[in-house]
Amino acid sequence: MDRRRFIQSSALAGLSGMLPLSGSAAQPAFNPSPTAGWRTFEVTTVITPVTRGEAATAWIPLPSIDNPEWIRPLASDWQGNAARAGIAEDTVYGTKMLVAQWRAGQEAPVIELVNRFATRDRAVDLTQPGAVAPLDAPSHKLFTQATELLPTDGVVRDTALKITQGAGTDLERARAIYEWICDNTERNPKTRGCGLGDIRSMLESGNLSGKCADLNALFVGLARAAGLPARDVYGVRVADSKFGYKSLGKAGDITKAQHCRAEVWLAGFGWVPVDPADVRKVVLEERPGLTLKDDVVVAARKALFGSWEMNWLAYNVAHDLKLPEATGPAIPFLMYPQLETAAGRADSLDAPSFVYTLSSKEVTA
């Protein structure tokens, strides 16, 4: 039985800023704030590959973002009967993953991974720009460049320029894109998983519906096309919302609770959290018949430009990721566990061919 331990820690740092929002007696105001303090969670991933006796390799995302303001990976422990298991790291984005391999003929392959991490709400006071150093040149290039599913030319650039026409500052351009997405997209409950994020197809077809990997990718692609560094942040929900939004949290069995968010780099503020996809999720799922004009949606829309409630584990920010030792193509993003056998790459959303579970719990001790 293999067992390893991976520990990261960092000093705490303060971050100020609250967003006072309207609410009701039945539902608290949606105001994520780091003053609420740190919380610690454990996420357990169990993979039982269906291999038919073939050799198999699994890739499981690990918490790869360590930021003293809002998330601290603490430990990753695993056990199982893999012939080999260890941590690999992508050199472009710093994405960490557990890679587990089973030999041909292995009976009942299994691996269990426990990720422990601490997190607290993020909130940036967008009324108070500060003396923030410019984004370094390599990061600026990385987070403004096109990817396979995030082109920055053609219809994407044309749309970005139209949306941001007349907007002078970084903040004004980012807000214009955010508001446009909130106004013009829809969450599609029939979309598989979290969606794919093929933004050119979305804009060319005029079908601006999907889930988080579609709608937040649209924000990221349009921001990049407008000259703003931006990135998707891929992760999974780990707890219910403390603000009463049933659509914006998940505890216990989180096997299907994957959720990506977005960040944009703004002069005077640095990386700013946004999540227009969750605005559309509130409209569709919070309760029947909601529109963008209802108070519960207005509150979420205001909060989700500049803050995140951190009942969520952030894995990584990688696009077009080549999995180490894989024979198949690069993947658009690593938010779900991946599996490959001699028969090829398994479908991460097809339970009969690729069986795994995720569960979460808050740790108080």
Describe the protein in words.
The chain is α+β, with helices and mostly antiparallel strands and 365 residues long. The protein has 2 domains: 5-22 and 39-120 and 320-363, Immunoglobulin-like; 122-315, C8orf32 fold, CATH 3.10.620.30. The chain is built from 7 helices and 19 strands. A 6-stranded antiparallel β-sheet has the order 1-4-7-2-19-12, with no helix packed on it. Strands 5-6-3-17-18 form a 5-stranded antiparallel β-sheet, with no helix packed on it. Strands 14-13-11-16 form a 4-stranded antiparallel β-sheet. The longest helix has 15 residues, at 170-184. It is globular. Residues 1-25 have low confidence and may be disordered.
Break the fold down into its secondary structure elements and pairings.
Blueprint: E1 5-7, E2 39-49, E3 56-61, E4 71-80, E5 84-89, E6 96-102, E7 111-119, E8 122-123, H1 137-142, H2 154-163, H3 170-184, E9 186-187, H4 199-205, E10 209-210, H5 212-225, E11 230-237, E12 252-253, E13 258-266, E14 270-274, H6 276-285, H7 295-303, E15 307-308, E16 312-316, E17 338-341, E18 344-345, E19 354-363
Parallel strand pairs: 9-10
Antiparallel strand pairs: 1-4, 2-7, 2-19, 3-6, 3-17, 4-7, 5-6, 8-15, 11-13, 11-16, 12-19, 13-14, 17-18
Helix pairs in contact: 2-4, 2-5, 3-5, 3-6, 6-7
